[in-house]
Amino acid sequence: MIVYTHGDCLKKYNGAAHPERKERLDSIIDSIKSSDLKVEFKEAPKADPEIVTLVHPKKHLEQIFARIPKNGIIGVEREPYADTMLCPNSKNAILRSCGSGIAACDDLMNKNQRVFCAVRPPGHHAETVRAMGFCFINNIAVSARYLQKKYKINKVAIIDFDVHHGNGTQEIFYNDSSVAYGSSHESPLFPGTGSETETGVGNIFNATLKAGTKKKEFLSIFEKKILYPIDRFKPEVILISAGFDAHKRDPLANINLESEDFFQITKLIVDIANIHSKGRVISFLEGGYDLIALSESIREHLTALKTHI
Question: Where are the domains of the chain?
Answer without folding.
Answer: 2-307
